[in-house]
Amino acid sequence: MIKRPDEIVEIIKKIDDAGYDVCYAGQCIVSALMGETPLDWDMYTDCPQEKIREMFPDGEVLGKRMTRLDQSTFVKSDDLNVADHYDGVVVDIVTLEGSLEDQLGLYDFTCEATAERKNGSAVDPYKGREDIRKRLLKPVGDIGARMKKNPALIFKALRYVGLYGFDFSKELYDVTMANADRAQFADKEEILYEFILAISGSHAGKFLKMLKGMNLLDTVVGPDGISNNPRERKDYDGLCEGIDRTKRIPTRRLGLFYLVFDRKYEKALNHLPHDEETLMYLDDAKHVCPKLYFCGNEEKLKDFIYKVGWDKYNYVDKLLKAQSIAHGLETIKHEGRDAVLKQILRENQAIFEEDLKIDADDIIEAGITDDKERAQYLLSLLPAVIHRDPYKNDRDKLLKYARSFNKSKFRAALRDITWVR
Q1: What is the pTM for the complete model shown?
Q2: Treating both helix axes as pointing N-terminal to C-terminal, what angle do 250-259 and 276-287 enclose, rounded to 10 degrees?
Q3: Would you call 349 helix, strand, or coil by DSSP?
Q4: pLDDT digit string (tens) for 11-46?
Q5: Among 67, 113, 154, 362, which is disulfide-ready with 59 (CB 3.0 to 4.6 Å)?
Q6: What is the per-residue DSSP string for 146-213?
Q7: How far apart are CA 83 and CA 301, in angstroms?
């Protein structure tokens, strides 16, 4: 018997107490047997949906035979090396029409086509559990016909490679290659969904190798994103070898992936419909990472953090470190930057406007200006002063600089320039 979360135990008990049979099947069993805690569960029962909806009034009605129970909560991770995730379960309760074996025959792969009854006994007509132990992906039924109709199944199969390191059976490989030219017609949203799951898995390197080896890379980055540049091709191969050494953070892994396309970065990135937040991170990967790389002293590092904020800094900092890990690059610059940042934090040096010893009201009260917007603007000029010299974070000194900048646009423009004799 696989380990059942408390929410699943309670749902099973409620259906069982009502006098109905119930079991679960699909990827939840794969995930559990691979040592993970499943989020999504497929449950099958002989209980009519009317009764299910009486027992679970908060469920979402999905057709005549299915009710979805979403008992999950989103967890925003405080640890930069742990991905945001969902706790709890999302359960689809389906009323069977026909036998359980018939239902299992509708799954795409044998690893999914295995069920477990409420007493823990297995229903495994396709020997899916043996294939899970072997990490072998085998098709159920006429997978070729299904791929012709829905070529996104190719990427669903590759998801099992990236997540768990499965190998394709010869039959599945032959069918996939026979339908590979149809992958360009797959729904891009589905490709993106499967791609992110696969590249965030513990066997992402194997997945990326297969993606290239099966000539499917252009379905992810588009034909205009493919590069024939020898260095970029070498970088891709290097990423395949090293990506599994990096943390499984989706935006970080995506940054590593797209960075290898270098000169065709924008075309590669824009082929799939990433959401706006992800695009923001990936734009930073290309355009902000190089700026951070050369922030080797206190002034430059504080100025960088001030301009981009902590969230963006943490992303590009961790991405640069992951890039070094994945490609076996030197880490001396990262170590030096970490040492500088530790000193800044240890000495509680000011970085942002809110860290200053004055605010906009102080500038107004000092008679420098009576305009609130002008005072706020003058305040925004002062961090550059204390980034160069932390000891100038003093009320009188800052007001003196604010008065100077208010009188002279020239001095304000040159506030972050260090003159050398």
Answers
A1: 0.91
A2: 50
A3: coil
A4: 999 999 999 999 999 999 999 999 999 999 999 999
A5: 67
A6: HHHH-TTHHHHHHHHHHHH-PEEPHHHHHHHHHTGGGGGGS-HHHHHHHHHHHHTSTTHHHHHHHHHH
A7: 26
